[in-house]
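Quality-control log, excerpt.
Job 1 of 2 completed; input and output follow.
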Amino acid sequence: MPLYIGGTKINWFKYSSPQAFYPLAGKMIPWFTIAALLFTVPGLYFSFFVAPPDYQQGEAYRIMFIHVPAAWMSMFIYVVMAAYAGMGLVFNSRLSSMMASALAPTGAMFTFLALWTGALWGKPMWGAWWVWDARLTSELILLFLYIGFISLQAAIDEPRRAARASAILALVGVVNIPIIYFSVKWWNTLHQGASITVSKAPTMAASMLTALLLMTFAFWMYTIVVALLRVRCEILERERHTEWVAQAMTGEAR
């Protein structure tokens, strides 16, 4: 269904084609790169110079400004990845499968970053690098799901079969996301409850909240940039035998 903006008809469905999406992605990358920088620089400044020390944890709590956005992104990216994989499975959409493949490495990276920074934060706070806490364990399972998704695609040579198999794994793994999110409420864990909720006002200082949101948007913009870069590579790899890819490569080489 076309969308009219300012009297101009824009048919978004045409961008479900890899051939149409490839140049669009190239045009979007610089803008999202600028957005990532615009959020990252003030985000780091607020995180390390503006936000006050925590009254209990002192300066050590500042790792939260990396840990929390990374944990949020690890879950968010998995849901988006699974949605794209599901669309590729149901509608046999090549671009959807490519987007799922492009998102998986970044999701795995953020999951690892969340676990690693959590260990660095947990050692001075809990006295241990790792405990088999419900949230930690479910987040570790999320990392294994990402690795399984990537490995399954790499193990199957035929792209369509690989996309179908990995899509099933991604959709099954979605059940782990609410387990991660609600683990603090469902079980007795070392993690504190959410400081930011939709129904209540934030329980942290305004400067802390600003730093946290800026870093979250910075990670989000970074994810979009990297996903677009990867999906362009995926398109060129999977469509390399088509005439339009040869023309695109020739044009970019000039």
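Job 2 of 2 completed; input and output follow.
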Amino acid sequence: MTTAPTGYRPNSQGHLIPNESIKPLDLLRDDTVRRIVEQARDTQHQLLRFKTSAMDDINSFVDIAAEQYSTKLGGKRGNLTLTSFDGRYRINVQVSDLLRFDERLHIAKQLIDECIHEWTTDSNANIKALIEHAFQTDKEGNINKGRVFGLMRLRIDDAKWIKAMEALKDSIQIASSSEYMRVYERIGQTDQYKQIALDIAGL
């Protein structure tokens, strides 16, 4: 990012404007926004360092715990809960996978269409509409995974349908994974816990 010359500020079009040509309130607004953004960046870096340090501590603890039973844990860790000795504090670690479908999704759709054609001699429009609804995409072209998984939960004893469901299952790919850590404190002597907010919206 290019630094503006002393005494000038770039406007939204990228043009350099002399400070004396900018209204005092606009200057104050600009200074206020920039100061808050800088503080936000510093806070973001602190949170990142905290998360990295905390996850390292948790992984070290899990390794030590595994050694107690003469074993070693490998691969991705997640869905873990650690509680302090007095039960006052609790830490939850969860790994969330971002799923996508590969080209086998289209193969499954073709097989399902063939099933509908074979099952309905009159090409029942209602059944077709349900299937089309499951495979509809949003504005970004993404499939609603919940509706597709709903098809997979149907128990239909048909060889072609089973083959279609196998294609659906095989088409599921993990695009990326996100690791979440949530810290909780018990409310008084109850069995209820309140999350210690680490995001601005939760404060």
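Post-run check on job 2. Residues 24 and 30 are 10 Å apart (CA to CA).
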